[in-house]
Amino acid sequence: MQFEHKEALEALESTLSEKNDVVTIHEQTSQQLAALQKKLEEREQRVEILQAELDHLNQALSSDLRRKDEEVCEQAAALAEKAELVKELQSQLAEAEALHASSSQQLQQQLKEKVETLERLEEELAQYRSEASSNDVEFHKTKAELSALLHKWQEVEETNRTLQEERDSLKLAGEDLQGQLDAARKQLASTIDEKTSAIDELRNQLESAKSSLQHERETSNYKISDLSKDLDREVGEKRTMQVRLEAQDEKIGDMKALLAVCQSQLESRTAEVQKLEARAQQRDKEVEDLRSQLMTLESERASAQSRMQAAEEDADAQKALVTSLKEQVLDLKQKLAKAEGLRRRLHNELQELKGNIRVFARVRPSSERSVVGVDEELGTVMVPHNGQSNGFRFDRVFPAMSSQEDVFSEVSQFVQSALDGYNVSLFAYGQTGSGKTHTMFGSREDQGIIPRSMGQILGGVEGMRESGWEYQLEASFLEIYQEHVRDLLCAEEEREGKKYTITLGENGRHDVSDLIYRRVRTMEDVEEMMAEAERNKSIAKTDMNERSSRSHTVFSMRITGRKAGVGGQQQALHGTLHLVDLAGSERLAKSHATGERLKETQAINKSLSALSDVFVALSKKSPHVPYRNSKLTFLLQPCLSGDGKALLIANCSPIETSSHETLCTLRFASMVSSCELGKVSSRGGGGGGGGE
Ligand code: ADP
Ligand code: MG
């Protein structure tokens, strides 16, 4: 934009320099006009001299005429002759005058035309002046110069007119002279002859004067033509100037157009600038707003910072509090651990006080008349048989209306002992149909001891985790039939080659080789195991009817608890819980089988007999307990000796037809009830009593 303005300025400057050139040309023209004026003045002086000479000549002629009046009269006759000559001369003069008049007229015409041209030029100039107001000053100057030139021309014309007047006066003088000549003609007629020579001389003089006058006139005409040429040139120059002016005007027009474009651009730019200014104002406002927001934010930040500082201080205080609380918690944990150990010891002492082998009796409900009397408070069961009433006392007795929950509330102490690191076994004893399976497994709606124990263990493990104990639970499910171990978690086709030998294992436990142990973390795991065992049992059922009554079902759980103790020492608990659904006890008494069947029955019953033998030995405090006589007793040996704990639930049928079997069951249970486990501390590695 600026560049364009600069270009326009440069163009204007060049125009101005051109105008200056025109001015110098005008000045030169003025000088030339001045020279012409000087020449005209000289010519006027010459005309004056000529006039003086003419005056002198007239005076001389007058005197001569006066002198010659007489001679004229005398020469009148001669003059008459000469008159013709004069007439002729006069006609020649008239011709010359006419010629001069015509040439003068032509000149005047030309002058008039020039003046008209000048006037037109003037008009055009006036137009240009109005159009190009910026060039007014130069125009005025030019106009003034032109008007001066015109004025000079008018002066030249005036001079010319004066010359013409002079010529007219000369003519008049000539006419006067003619008159005088006419008057004197008569006088001179006589003297004409005499004077002819004088007249001839005079004529010669006149002729020469005329010729000189003619010459002067011609010179004047030349000068006029020169002046005319000058004027033409001037006009040409004017035209050139005009052309230049036009060109300049064009340039000016172009420049004006350019200026208009520039103006429009400037306007658009101005509008843009205004827009930008408006936007800038908007931005300024926004910036102002943002600044105020920033200030607000900064003040907020400052307050937030102060709050944060306060919060940090608070946090420090809280940290200190947390540290002290942690210390307290640690202290409490230690106390809790001690308390937990104490609880375990006390619990165990209580269990020992209650007896490591305990016996409960449970009578199942029946639609038939019940002959078994149960006194819950006294813990007695009365069974009439052969007209005799047989009474028994146990640690707990459960009448028919007792729920699974009632039973488990007493059983749960044993489960707790297993969690505390003891080897615990629970037996359901009794004739077929007395409710053993119901008591141990129950149904989905009315869960028995096994699922309830699992729930208690899983809950206990969760609770102990808070005290830093991590537990590992592994479960197995087996069946002992005719002294053969059958893994219920192993499918029939996968049992090939598996021995299931029972050996004395680590941590006071007995291991079964090849037996599958499943990790238990949730109740779903337990349910899945049960379902799997059920599936494997059903396959077996097809070829072995009533087998479940003639075999022992053992659900076992290994409970291993570990806790990082003070000084990197690790505490460990190794408990075992065996939940046993025993084979029907009636076979011991009611089997009247012989031959092969007897052999089978004897084999089936061997483990129950072995169990009975173990309890008999224990009750008699026999130095030898025959654990190895059966797989079941050998497997359960850790629970039936030392710190082990055993619970036998004697299930009874209340109906009269079962009273003998009920009596047998209760006698067996009574015998077990009198047993005590010898305190044998042979469980290195921490089992029994807390594992410390
Ligand atoms: P067992 O396993 O000793 O052969 P079951 O547990 O199979 O005997 O019980 C025989 C029947 O008696 C089953 O139908 C069982 O549901 C039922 N029964 C046993 N005990 C109870 C009880 N306490 N309450 C309700 N029903 C019982
Ligand atoms: Mg059963």
Automatic annotation (TrEMBL):
* Coiled-coil annotated residue ranges, if any: 26-219, 259-356
Q: Name the SMART domains on file.
A: KISc (SM00129)
Q: Which key words tag this protein in UniProt?
A: ATP-binding, Coiled coil, Microtubule, Motor protein, Nucleotide-binding
Q: Where in the cell is it found?
A: Plastid, Chloroplast
InterPro entries recorded: Kinesin-like_fam, Kinesin_motor_CS, Kinesin_motor_dom, Kinesin_motor_dom_sf, P-loop_NTPase
Ligand binding (ATP): G430, Q431, T432, G433, S434, G435, K436, T437
Q: Which GO terms describe its molecular function?
A: ATP binding; microtubule binding; microtubule motor activity
A Pfam family: Kinesin
Q: Which BP terms does GO give this entry?
A: microtubule-based movement
Q: Give GO cellular component annotations, separated by semicolons.
A: chloroplast; microtubule
State the superkingdom.
Eukaryota
Write the protein's name: Kinesin-like protein
Organism (species): Guillardia theta (strain CCMP2712) (Cryptophyte)
Lineage, uppermost ranks: Eukaryota, Cryptophyceae, Pyrenomonadales, Geminigeraceae, Guillardia
